[in-house]
Design brief:
Layout: E1 16-18, H1 28-32, E2 37-39, E3 45-47, H2 57-66, E4 72-74
Antiparallel strand pairs: 1-4, 2-3
The structure holds FE3-S4 cluster.
Length: 75
């Protein structure tokens, strides 16, 4: 039996970015997925992680889709 190696899933990693010029602080992103989105002292969204942790992709996408300003990009 072969060694089950560490499977790299680089191609599947999801990244999210927030456009600070668009973000108006609606905080939907944070309410839906606080594991990935935080709020700065002005209430604007900050992305807390370099890559969306496994299992949170759906939540992160939903957060992006619910931003009224369409400030969140999912790659
Ligand atoms: Fe900003 Fe949209 Fe979140 S406006 S705080 S990125 S829901």
């Amino acid at each position: 039996m072969g060694i089950v190696g560490h499977v790299l899933t680089e191609g599947n990693l999801m990244k999210v970015t927030v456009d600070p010029d668009r973000c108006q602080g609606h905080a939907q992103c944070w309410e839906i997925c606080p594991e990935v989105f935080g709020l700065d002292e002005e209430g604007h969204s900050v992305v807390l992680v370099g890559e969306v942790p496994a299992g949170l992709e759906a939540k992160a996408s939903r957060a992006a889709g619910n931003c009224p300003e369409r400030a969140i990009t999912v790659d």
